[in-house]
Write a structure and sequence with these properties.
By secondary structure, this protein is of the alpha+beta class. It is 25% helix and 28% strand. The protein has 9 helices and 19 strands. The radius of gyration is 21 Å and the shape is globular. The structure holds 2-OXO-4-methylpentanoic acid. 2-OXO-4-methylpentanoic acid binds next to loops.
Amino acid sequence: MSSIRIDPAIESAIAGFEMPEHLGFGVVMAPVMYRCDYQDGRWWDGQLLPYGALQIDPAAKVLHYAQEIFEGLKAYRVGGGDVTLFRPEMNWERMNISAQRLCMPEIPRDIFMQAVQTVSAYCQDFIPGNSGQSLYLRPFVIGTQADLSVAAANTYSFLVIASPSEVYHSGNMRVFIERNDSRAAVGGTGAVKVGGNYAASLQSLRTTRAQGYDQTLWLHPADHRHIEELSGMNFFAVIDGELHTPALSGSILPGVTRDSLLRLAGVNNMAVRQRPMAIDELLQALQSGSCSEAFACGTATIISAISALGEASGECYEIPAPGPVAQRLRTQLLDIQEGRGADDFGWVRPIDASCYP
Ligand code: COI
């Protein structure tokens, strides 16, 4: 493990923290955070600090040119047992792919793992214990160099904050088909996790909400015909008993939950198809009944069944939800994540003893 300095004020920050009764998602912030700075071509020692505001130069590149990447993963402690993480290596790998895309320095594996494990270990008493709840971890990197020229920064901060949370979206979702805006272009940043993708989704979210829907379904930026993803979730449909999801197109984020569900479906002997999925073909399949269910998945939301797909024209296709495939996969995944089911894939990672206070 790389070395880490524990701020002496951590103890009182933890002692003074009270878990509210209602958590929501990403609203309550855990009292500690991790920080590691990059300067002179290297990452320096990490620090565990009380959660608090950052001091940042107003000319920092992140504030002007959006040089920011992030990840989302969860620490679990359902039933009060040991704290575990789910596939954190995948988040580390994806974060470094995002870093390459935005010309940022990669995060060494031991720094990433120590950061997420130490924050989880110090927050062990703030990991909610009911099924579906967790400590949502948000690692992120920002370009901090104060200089308005458009170029990669030469200084960065890697931070991890955490939030005791419920699922991102509980219940079924009504989804709006976005036929005009694009979330991200092929060759752009759609396949990596950068804050700018989410900023670009907000205009459509406003339309989506105004039309009475919960989430936007994005189509391929070049043809506006093929399904991509929802702004923070991947898309699945069950067609003729097979599990279909859009093939990674270069502008779809390769989700950790997406990958996990594809593998679990294989274990269930369910045929899995990753392919270009035309929206109009899906709507026809819904009308003919060959598409029996649709759902979205992601770390924050786990699996959310889709109960309606709607158009700006006012047309709306109702879908029976939640469907049996979504329910079964959700149960299987949560059983593994929360320690009730056999971890046949070796996805669950305990926290190293050296990370605890
Ligand atoms: C996650 O599922 O971790 C995400 O990043 C989605 C988020 C934007 C809520």
